[in-house]
UniProtKB/TrEMBL annotation:
Start and end residues of each Transposase IS701-like DDE domain: 26-276
PANTHER family from the UniProt entry: TRANSPOSASE
Protein source organism: Streptomyces spectabilis
Descriptive protein name: Transposase
Source species, domain of life: Bacteria
Pfam families assigned to the protein according to its UniProt record, in alphabetical order: DDE_5
């Protein structure tokens, strides 16, 4: 057809690059041929454009057409395509490489200027040590070998975005998309992934040490029947598992903080385990551990942390419902969250995680879907050299 822009990438070996087949597998559900072409083009741009991945720079990397930037912007921000089918196919693609060891839930802070980008708000960010203007994304990553691969996302909508119809209309927020607490988004990601996976559901690993609503997430994951390893704030209330067992009694019990519990019950007899870390290889560490219940609940959880006596306090505190698992297995699962932080950095530096320029709710989800797909492609099937020729100029 005259005016169509085709995507083609030659591999270093001279054969065809797997990108077209990869793009077709994830985005073949799109109803229009131009949508499918621009999905592949956006992927190609994310993979081949150095530095900031603005729409203009992506378009210049894949086409010499003067209208490519406008077309790419239209595809991301205005074209009404569904992202859930692509994320389902991305999950399937990753799982074809093997059963995930864990499902890791993590947050992504996306700094923004102004107040019109969908879900933008002021938030204190512990890593930055200050309050910034940002969006907050919640993602789920499949842990596969040394890789952590994102396959699904939620966007936090602050409460002020519930009632302001002008903001909602301008950002094209669907009627059913409302403010939900972070724990609800995390639980929904786990439930959605459980419906999509073709393997036995993996343990959910979540770093919630900076979030006060972690008890709600733990309870919801328990109701879903999920195996879990979840970090908690050190002052979160816990009860000894030996406390009287009815929910009423536990609700009346005066709980101590999680860190205080470990100090009082575990420091005399720490467990020594051997763990393998990406940074240090195999090493021996001491673990403080005990059995607890959360106030108002009747199910038993294991609480544990690495003991660092030189600091005179435990490190990050974790709870798990995997009561029969060895402590070295639990600590190995807990330490996967450090790899997810590294993956976030790669997503920012290599795949344009922070570079979405639009303001709409669909545009954000489109971009995050394509960023996740680009990262999976780069780690699982990219050729050694992916120098892409430009698309031909439109007639």
């Amino acid at each position: 057809m005259a005016g169509q822009q085709q995507v083609g990438v030659a591999s270093a070996a001279g054969g065809s690059d797997p990108l077209p087949a990869f793009a077709a597998a994830l985005f073949g559900h799109l109803p229009r041929a131009d949508q499918r072409r621009w999905a592949q083009g956006y992927l190609q741009g994310l993979l081949s454009t150095p530095g900031k991945k603005s729409v203009r720079r992506l378009a210049a990397a894949i086409s010499d057409s003067p209208t490519a930037s406008q077309s790419l912007q239209q595809f991301i921000n205005a074209s009404p395509w569904e992202w859930d089918p692509a994320r389902k196919e991305l999950t399937r693609y990753v799982e074809q490489r093997g059963a995930p060891r864990a499902w890791i839930i993590a947050t992504a802070v996306l700094p923004k200027r102004g107040g019109h980008s969908c879900g933008v708000h002021r938030r204190f960010v512990p890593e930055a040590g200050r309050t910034i203007n940002c969006q907050l994304g919640i993602g789920v990553f499949l842990s596969l070998g040394e890789l952590q691969l994102p396959v699904d996302w939620r966007l936090m909508l602050p409460e002020q975005w519930n009632a302001d119809e002008r903001l909602r209309e301008r950002a094209r927020i669907p009627a059913l998309a409302r403010h939900r607490p972070l724990w609800a988004h995390a639980a929904d990601l786990a439930a959605t992934l459980a419906r999509r996976t073709r393997h036995t559901p993996a343990p959910v690993v979540a770093d919630m040490s900076d979030h006060t609503d972690v008890a709600q997430l733990i309870e919801q994951l328990h109701r879903q029947g999920r195996a879990m390893v979840v970090s908690v704030p050190p002052g979160m209330g816990v009860c000894p598992a030996t406390a009287r067992t009815t929910a009423a009694h536990l609700g009346a019990h005066s709980p101590g903080g999680a860190r205080q519990f470990l100090y009082q019950h575990s420091t005399r007899h720490p467990h020594v385990v051997t763990v393998t870390t990406p940074e240090h290889g195999q090493r021996h560490i001491r673990i403080l551990s005990g059995l607890i219940r959360l106030p108002g609940t009747a199910h038993t959880l294991r609480i544990f942390t690495q003991w660092r006596p030189s600091l005179q306090r435990p490190a990050r505190v974790w709870v798990s419902n995997l009561l029969d698992a060895r402590l070295d297995e639990l600590m190995a699962l807990a330490q996967l969250h450090t790899r997810t932080r590294a993956t976030m950095t790669h997503l920012e530096d290599e795949c344009g995680l922070l570079d979405f320029e639009g303001r709409s709710y669909p545009g954000w989800h489109h971009h995050m879907t394509l960023v996740s797909a680009a990262y999976a492609y780069s780690r699982l099937c990219a050729p050694a050299s992916a120098a892409a020729p430009p698309l031909p100029r439109t007639a």
